[in-house]
Amino acid sequence: MSRLIVVSNRVAAPRDPAAGSAGGLAMALSAALRKYDGLWFGWSGETVETFTPEAKFEDRAGVTVALVDLEAQDVEEYYNGYANKTLWPLFHHRVDLTAYERSYGEGYERTNARFAEVLAPLLRPDDLIWIHDYHMIPLARDLRRLGVKNRIGFFLHTPWPARQLLVTLPHHRRLVESMFDYDLIGFHTREWLDLFRDYVASEPSVNGKLLPNDAVEAFGRTVQTGVFPIGIDVDAFLAARNSTFGARTYDRMAASAAFRSMIVGVDRLDYSKGLEERLLGYEQFLEDNPDMRGEVFLLQVTPISRDEVDTYQDIRARLDALAGRVNGEYADMDWQPVRYINRTYRRDQLAGIYRAARVGLVTPLRDGMNLVAKEYIAAQNPDDPGVLVLSRFAGAAEQMGEALLVNPFSREELSDAIKRALTMPLSERKRKWECLMQVVRDTDVGIWRDDFVASLTAVVKPAA
Ligand code: ADQ
């Protein structure tokens, strides 16, 4: 049987899977690596004075991980720079926040070439290689240059941007050309895949061709593409929900929400998640519905992320101010409309929190998929489920059309959706929840992983 080699910027294989802190993706890929006797390769998170092309190996609960140290300049230009200040905002439609620095692009190319230099000698001829996310788009090209002939798949966890935005990136053609060294490219949704195909077929400097069955041809090569919607580990999440700790958190939240309806938001602190717009929508709701003041509260759980990037410090300051403003304006001596918390919780605690919430607010301005939407649904009590309010711009909206879909840029729409969710009759809530829970089951992370691996194995490679 072929080995599976997973490659991602940070290696998420948990040291202690029983600790309950690892997400579904980390658990699903770790399980696959145990099954296929594979390897998880990526950056160690450490910096060294001088790069040496060697990996450090570790065993993490039966998963072999291979870690590479980078130089500080690599981290600054490749990770903080090109990945987080250039590609992330651009892929989330924020050209206003995109940094177009030449040194970032150069650092990105250099660091990917370094990853290839360390990875190539570790490979065996029949290994399947699965590269994840926007940090490592050119890695297949760099591996091919070193003579690697293996099947290589790529999965993008973010949206793919519209062509009109992608062309603002200097060397966009070079970036896309490097993708034609993969055998398979996967996206979360048909929408992201169609945007990729539109670029390939309509960008004059590429002049590619769309072939049957989602294959695309350009730069003298053909690549297979596909839609692979990611999900959560449903059984693990239900077990976390039903665990003693999950149940205890639910009781604690339910007691704290007694006589009041809780609305919950759980998101990394990121401008793509639409947090400011969400707070403005909630403020509008309080303005529009004086009778509901004192009856509801919003619990917004938002761990700080990427704090070394200025844009993230700015949005953090704006959110602090906004949460303070809404509380200052509407709170009463025994009621606070917003509980804004910058910390992480264990998965079983999160499950308890979701279950106690009447409304789940998942309103990103743009998001590859969004797993919180699926976690919120999985956590609900089937006899009395809460209502999911979901941005139409999250990839999840392509499958979860039974949620209350909203335009997160409109505070009036958000206000109306919150009201509708809070007042929805039980029969409608149950019907919607049943449909949505079926979607959550159908897109279990194990199905996503196995589909991708099977599709990569099935790609017909042109004769060498
Ligand atoms: P993210 O942008 O991180 O992922 P998301 O899919 O919502 O977004 O996943 C976030 C995860 O972090 C969820 O499992 C959530 O429970 C967890 N989390 C968030 N806040 C937390 C907190 N306070 N405490 C504990 N856990 C918390 C990227 C893409 C998404 C895509 C995923 C997977 O941006 O669009 O869905 O990858 O492909």
Automatic annotation (TrEMBL):
Name of the protein this chain belongs to: Trehalose 6-phosphate synthase
Name of one Pfam family that matches = Glyco_transf_20
Top-level taxonomic group? Bacteria
EC id: 2.4.1.15
Q: Which SUPFAM superfamilies match?
A: UDP-Glycosyltransferase/glycogen phosphorylase
UniProt lineage? Bacteria, Pseudomonadati, Pseudomonadota, Alphaproteobacteria, Caulobacterales
Q: Which GO terms describe its molecular function?
A: alpha,alpha-trehalose-phosphate synthase (UDP-forming) activity
Alphabetic keyword roster: Glycosyltransferase, Transferase
Q: Which organism is it from?
A: Brevundimonas basaltis
Q: Name one GO biological process term.
A: trehalose biosynthetic process
Family of this protein: Belongs to the glycosyltransferase 20 family.
Q: Which InterPro entries match?
A: Glyco_trans_20
